[in-house]
Amino acid sequence: MSAEPITTFESSLEEVGVELVRTSTDQFESTLIPLLSTPAVGAPLPFENVSLPDAVETDPGVEELEAAKTGVTAAGYGIAEYGSVIIQGGPDGEEPASLYADEHVAVVAGSDVLPDMDATFDRLAEDIRSDAGQAIIATGPSATADMGALVKGAHGPVEVTVVLLEDR
Amino acid sequence: MSVDTRQRKAERIRHLLETEGDSVHKNTQVFNNGRYESTADLEDYEELKDEARAIKEDAIERLPELVNQVTETVEANGGTVYIADDAADANRYVTEVADGRDVVKSKSMTSEEIEVNESLEASGSDVWETDLAEFVLQVADEAPSHIVAPAIHKSREEIAELFNAYFEPEKPLETAQELTQFAREYLGEKFVDAEVGMTGANFVTADTGTLALVTSEGNARKCVQATDTHVAVAGVEKIIPRVEDLQPFVELIGRSGTGQDITSYVSLFTPPGDSPTFDVDDELGSGDEREFHLVLIDNGRMEMREDDQLRETLYCIRCSACANSCANFQHVGGHAFGGETYSGGIATGWEAGVHGADSAAEFNDLCTGCSRCVNQCPVNIDIPWINTVVRDRINRGKDGDLDFLVKGLTPDEEPGGVDLQKRLFGNFDTLAKLGSAFAPLSNWVAQAGPARSLMERTLGVDSRRELPEFERESLVEWFKNRGPQVDPEEARRQVALYPDAYTNYVRTERGKAAIRVLEALDVRVDVPSAGESGRAPLSQGMVATAQSNAEDVYDALAPAVAAGHDVVVVEPSDLAMFHREYERLLPEDNYTALKNHSYEILEYVYGLLENGADINALPDGDDMQIAYHSHCQQRTLNLEPYTLAVLEDCGFDVRTSDVECCGMAGSFGYKSEYYELSIDVGETLVDQFTTENTADRTVVASGTSCLEQLDALLTRRPAHPVRLLDT
């Protein structure tokens, strides 16, 4: 793996049809707002001094989830080689927020972009042993070829965007 | 097998070729090409396969211990583990847990194996398959035709027709996009209503109780999140020791299956999960009370584990590479090439172990042993061998009523119950010997109308096939009269040319050409009188006869090997015997000695040229336009490049085919029940050799079967490539 996991991450994401948007802690909100289509849902972000704008509903019901255009959640880490993000679900509702909306916006800290599967599984094993109940290795939007041709957006999002907090 | 049974089989295959063949072919090609591309990009592909294999070997070895460990872990996490002895036991437990509540399911072949939907519905549950392909099949009331893409046999048009008739939407559905959107919305309500979510598991880790689910649609995630009770059903063989062990599988499974580097979602759940779930009032409520039941299913697996031949099947990760890389499967699909639940090459092992020999016997003959799946399997399972062993067991399982008839008449080692058709093809050596002794009379009689119709009725030899014509003088006899031509003192190397049964009795011209080409390169050639390699009986599941042939061949070639000579083989399927199957048929030292000293003819020529032999001793190709079809087993041994390189170095202009198999596959294409499938497979090769660029090229092929198939389907007469080098 190169010394530049983020460059690799960006090109891997591009291959699976995901845009990488770079930002920093203080620019986060102004970066996110243009990416939102409303109604938007989300789960609270775990990064210090980073929070979701009010337009993002963090306690949605079924109707709001199903109507949501955008779902914003944190992603535990990224895998540069594959263009994947790890969605860790929990009581805060990362799982439904990342799954029902048309577009999933995943927020990843720059220091959490891991080079490859080796590094990822070292970390996954550690997390799972310390009680992380869920880790979805998500790569690109949901997809199916079951209806006779490849369709993006099956039961999950049609589109995925990764927002990278470069100073985290 | 009776005439009627053969006819029924042929009709069933014909029907599937007409109705499902096109969709299956198109879709498996995408997976097959995708796999080649995606695995080529993986730097440490072979190492990952070895690693995956080692993990599975270890896990199955320690399975009872791992079952105990995962039980403790899951229970410590707050879930429940139930070990089900068989399908009925599993279904009883699952229906008790569901207790009449509505169920949403993600795709699980294991749940197909136990037929849990029927049990759940009988106990009052509404059950919805949420994987879109499974949903299509649920609506159509059909069985999966592929273990990964269960509705692979259906075209978009057929699905649209089905949905429009069944759901009567206001605006008729047409595109894949519209069909997907419709299904998503329809099933969206089912997720909200359901209280029980059922999933399978691709892997279960014993140390943490983590389930790995490899999916793309997102429905498995919804099945878990949207419900209060998560029930996962998995065969006991899915357990692996540690979370870290998942890594090679995560890197291999998508590539090996659908040809994706990784699927959209590889979900690692360590249940019970605490994501918010849907309350009765459609709000998102706490998921803290979610129940989790892991149902581990034995259903024959622990017995497979004790079975030295079937144990490897338990290493299977159900990726479908063996189906996608199989020429027969590509053309006819899993509704023919499958048993009660599983389909494709490895299905023979699963069906034999889980449902019994009768289910395996339904389709086991569709594996021709071409071996194209062998290098594709991410856990290195010798899938053709499993098919051979199960075929042998099926042969032996039949009663021996015919013993009185065959005793003393056939030279083989098999019991009386073996099907006459299999016995005929399995004893090709004897047949060829007799045919040659009485040629040309034997050829005239065999080709005559009355003989052909008798052979079709009694032996199932299709009368639309031309039979091989035996030469009166065998290659061994010819060589005995002629003698070696190169002085051993001056020879570059000394070789024993192995006279396989076809080269010896039927296509002697390629044997003579091979001898002359070697001699032109200063090699002293001898042709020992060695019998059939065992390939013919092995392909009929007659393992004992194959072993006896192998021992005789070894005895005939051992003096040459002991003298430090090389063994050169013209027929790739026989070289493949020496290199692959003899490992199971001969003592280890003998196997290794023969393997290390035996070469395919053009591989050997390549080696001679690389080591100083003069290429000018061979004819100049002068840009002659050639279309070359390598042989399936030759390609599995990675020997195609040598023929190509030698021909190109000699100045020929070569195009190659890329089909997995010619469809003839030894005796397969002669069998009346499989004739039409064999032709259908062959047509794909013919298509490649009748394009604008290839239609006028001289056709060469390395395998006897390939030559026969091409001869039957092309107007050009094909030959073995060594004949291009024979002056």
UniProtKB/TrEMBL annotation, chain A:
Protein name: LUD domain-containing protein
Gene3D superfamilies with a match to the protein in the record: NagB/RpiA/CoA transferase-like
Pfam family, one: LUD_dom
All copies of domain LUD, residue ranges: 63-165
TrEMBL record, chain B:
BP GO annotations: lactate metabolic process
Keyword flag Transport: yes
Pfam entry (one): Fer4_8
Keyword Cytoplasm assigned: no
Molecular function, one GO term: oxidoreductase activity
Domain 4Fe-4S ferredoxin-type: 359-386
Domain of life: Archaea
Keywords for the protein's UniProt record, in alphabetical order: 4Fe-4S, Electron transport, Iron, Iron-sulfur, Metal-binding, Repeat, Transport
Matching InterPro entries: 4Fe4S_Fe-S-bd, 4Fe4S_Fe_S_CS, FTHF_cligase-like_sf, Helical_ferredxn, LUD_dom, LutB/LldF, NagB/RpiA_transferase-like
The name this protein goes by in its record: Putative iron-sulfur protein (4Fe-4S)
Taxonomic source organism: Natrialba taiwanensis DSM 12281
